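Good morning,

Attaching, inline, the backbone tokens for the sequence recovery test we're adding to the shared suite. The designed sequence is right after.
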């Protein structure tokens, strides 16, 4: 008489027997798998969400901003840009926006005149053009920006970090700081400037008042230029020789969006490390599943003997324990995928990022758990099917 064949439904039912009869052990074993999968999905999801946020920010800010700054002379000293550098850059045909800042040397910034001179807070005073915000795609957090009128008087806009260090939350007519030896009224505070981070730790004053009231010689220290995306590379090639025709090798030309992309590449290297840790956690979970299945075979020898004596074949016993291992791993994989996706969504909402969980990460994670489950259950399944009915029934 040929033994009855097990259909897919029968395999699931017999495979779930061990899970139903030992729920706590099954839960703890599945939890090990879930932690590994959750770690991997969350790491990939958070990294992808961060990358999507960077792409969104770059799309909003624009990637066509170039900066010109002084480099080094042949003797290793700090070079200087000509006074006419900004105007000459503005004459490049594809350039449609140009602005500049100039460092005011030997100018310390304090909340009041009673602060010790040594406590400078690491802030820098810059003379700025009135069109700076539009050129570098920066925004005001509060207050107003400098204009043609306020740029001639002692008014100052603080970068985000500068305002925090000086303890200034909001600007106002009665809020003043000491810039050099003169009091300036704070009229605005910037939000963090992604493409011009040097502005975050700066006090920004008008170009005219910097020349008339402070020690500013009118030389720009950074020139910002925008052009059409298709013209960025051609503009970049001529910026150095245009900004300083006498010494083009003493000019540094950069693209701020490249720095953001490089930082993202560094984040990806860190992500690879975290993925490795998640893989280790997944491996530990697989060992837990294998351990659970081996113990299950030892505890259920009488059940195996009874099934074998009632006509179950070695293949059917093997399929039963293999299915149990796969079910255990699948439960852990699905739970880990849900948990990892939830962690990603929660962190993305907290950071204000778009939530991105790649489908390949979820499907790959679940596939990995099934592969681990199959490997973890293979030896216990083979061992169970190798028991003879008399040997198994004789076990107390």
């Amino acid at each position: 008489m040929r033994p009855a064949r097990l259909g897919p439904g029968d395999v699931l039912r017999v495979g779930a027997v061990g899970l139903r009869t030992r729920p706590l052990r099954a839960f703890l074993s599945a939890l090990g798998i879930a932690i590994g999968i959750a770690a991997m999905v969350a790491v990939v999801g958070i990294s992808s969400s961060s990358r999507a946020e960077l792409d969104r920010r770059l799309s909003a800010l624009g990637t066509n901003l170039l900066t010109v700054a002084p480099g080094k002379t042949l003797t290793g000293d700090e070079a200087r840009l000509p006074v006419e550098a900004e105007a000459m850059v503005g004459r490049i045909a594809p350039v449609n926006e140009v602005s500049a800042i100039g460092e005011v040397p030997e100018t310390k910034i304090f909340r009041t005149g009673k602060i010790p001179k040594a406590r400078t807070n690491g802030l820098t005073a810059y003379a700025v053009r009135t069109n700076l915000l539009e050129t570098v795609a920066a925004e005001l957090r509060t207050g107003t920006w400098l204009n043609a009128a306020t740029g001639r008087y002692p008014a100052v806009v603080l970068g985000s970090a500068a305002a925090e260090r000086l303890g200034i939350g909001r600007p106002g007519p009665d809020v003043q700081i000491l810039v050099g030896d003169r009091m300036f009224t704070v009229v605005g505070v910037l939000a963090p400037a992604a493409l011009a981070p040097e502005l975050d730790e700066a006090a920004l004053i008008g170009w005219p008042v910097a020349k008339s009231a402070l020690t500013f010689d009118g030389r720009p220290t950074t020139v910002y230029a925008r052009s059409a995306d298709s013209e960025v590379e051609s503009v970049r090639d001529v910026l150095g020789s245009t900004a300083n025709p006498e010494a083009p090798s003493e000019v540094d030309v950069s693209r701020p969006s490249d720095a953001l992309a490089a930082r993202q590449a560094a984040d990806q290297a860190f992500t690879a490390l975290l993925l490795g840790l998640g893989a280790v956690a997944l491996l530990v979970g697989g060992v837990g599943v294998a351990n659970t299945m081996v113990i299950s075979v030892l505890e259920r020898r009488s059940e195996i003997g009874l099934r074998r004596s009632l006509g179950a074949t070695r293949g059917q016993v093997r399929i039963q324990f293999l299915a149990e291992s796969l079910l255990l791993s699948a439960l852990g994989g699905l739970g880990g995928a849900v948990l990892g996706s939830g962690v990603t969504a929660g962190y993305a909402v907290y950071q204000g990022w778009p939530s991105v969980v790649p489908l390949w990460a979820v499907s790959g994670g679940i596939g990995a758990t099934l592969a681990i489950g199959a490997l973890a259950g293979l030896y216990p399944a083979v061992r169970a099917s190798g028991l003879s009915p008399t040997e198994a029934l004789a076990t107390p």
